[in-house]
Design brief:
Largest sheet: 7 strands, mixed
Shape: globular
Number of helices: 13
Helix content: 40-55%
Strand order of the largest sheet: 1-2-4-3-5-7-6
Radius of gyration: 20 Å
Length: about 375
């Protein structure tokens, strides 16, 4: 199926519809399906699940894993990527001894509620830390927390918080500000980029998925975790946290070449982050895996900051009317920032996802 046809049938505008498209496409492709239920409900009372599709021989020693909705609302993009692959006919053309594992809506709660965070209010891609050890400190976030997510969104409060942020940025510089905002913090559950006080349900689900499919026993696993919201509009950067000199980074660079984003080296649209999902795969697979976050650009980071500020403020109020004008204005803003649902953006997403998936499968075949 060509990209222009697929983009009109692969993407959905609601979590329920995305799930239906995924399940139908997986069934048609002959995938085996397993479901992990979340006991919470969506904003309209809908059931929430993480659905997992396995395509290819059960005994395959090479596995490509594609994950959607690590950051819930970003799942609109990731789900479309997964459905496009399933309906493209690629499932019938896998290399020998190779399988594909599609994890749909890992953070299904955030997906349904149009949030980046989980039901615990946690940024899942900051949650993969060892909670038995001292947690990373983020003193910049500590200083600015009341400005990042104030108690009120009235004009006077917002003016004061913006003045505080501007002064802090001027004193400490832009790199320090972005680290304070986004690197991850483990103290303020009501604020953005909160890494949690303990492993989240979604993290536990990922561990159960990996165990159920015996990924630790496979010879090679390559993970593509689909994200949105950072970088040039529509461009997909494969962001990698593997260390220089490691077998894993050598493999990633052979797959994606100079398009690979390396935050630790200042060569990425992302900064170095705490508790990302790569820390889940490393102890499980050692040097037998690769992991990239395929990050699609949308709009600028100031727009992101405003959308997240409003969304956190809204949920900090406790229960609210999902259908109210105020709630919908906030929700539509965050959804559009992470899923600008135009045909042009979707076309760019699918062109790039097809390229990165092809490169990944070719890499797996080369690595054995």
């Amino acid at each position: 199926m060509d990209v222009l046809t697929s983009l009109r049938s692969s993407f959905a505008d609601e979590y329920d519809d995305a799930r239906r498209l995924f399940l139908d496409a997986a069934t048609a492709a002959g995938a085996s399906l397993t479901t992990w239920e979340n006991p919470n409900l969506g904003p309209r009372g809908e059931a929430l699940t993480t659905d997992v599709a396995w395509v290819g021989p059960q005994s395959a020693q090479r596995v490509m894993v594609v994950i959607s909705a690590t950051h819930g609302v970003e799942g609109f993009c990731g789900s479309g990527v997964q459905v496009d692959w399933l309906t493209s006919g690629s499932a019938a053309r896998l290399p020998a001894d190779t399988a594909v594992l599609l994890v749909h809506a890992l953070n299904c709660h955030g997906f349904a509620w149009w949030r980046r965070v989980t039901e615990e209010g946690c940024d899942l891609n900051r949650n993969f830390v060892d909670f038995s050890q001292p947690l990373p400190e983020n003193p910049g976030h500590d200083e600015l927390v009341d400005s990042f997510v104030p108690a009120s969104l009235d004009d006077a409060t917002l003016a004061a918080t913006e003045a505080t942020i501007a002064a802090w940025r001027g004193q400490h510089g832009e790199a320090a500000f972005q680290a304070a905002r986004k690197a991850g913090q483990y103290k303020h559950a009501h604020s953005m980029f909160f890494g949690g006080f303990a492993p989240t349900r979604a993290r536990q689900t990922l561990a159960e998925v990996a165990a159920a499919y015996g990924l630790a026993d496979r010879r090679t696993v390559s993970v593509i975790d689909v994200h949105t919201g950072l970088g040039p509009f529509g461009y997909g950067e494969p962001i990698c946290g593997h260390k220089r000199g490691s077998v894993a980074l050598d493999r990633v660079l052979s797959m994606y070449e100079d398009s690979t984003g390396l935050p630790a080296e200042g060569a990425s649209f992302s900064i170095p982050l705490n508790g990302t999902q790569g820390r889940f795969w490393q102890p499980l697979m050692g040097d037998r895996y690769t992991y990239v976050a395929l990050e699609y650009g949308t709009y600028n980071q100031e727009r992101s900051r405003r959308a997240l500020r409003a969304d956190h403020w809204l949920h900090n109020q406790g229960s609210f009317d999902w259908s109210s004008d105020n709630a919908q204005a906030i929700k539509q803003a965050i959804k559009w920032h992470y899923y600008p649902a135009t045909d042009a953006w979707k076309e760019m997403v699918l062109f790039r996802s097809r390229q990165v998936i092809r490169q990944t499968l070719e890499g797996l075949e080369r690595f054995g």
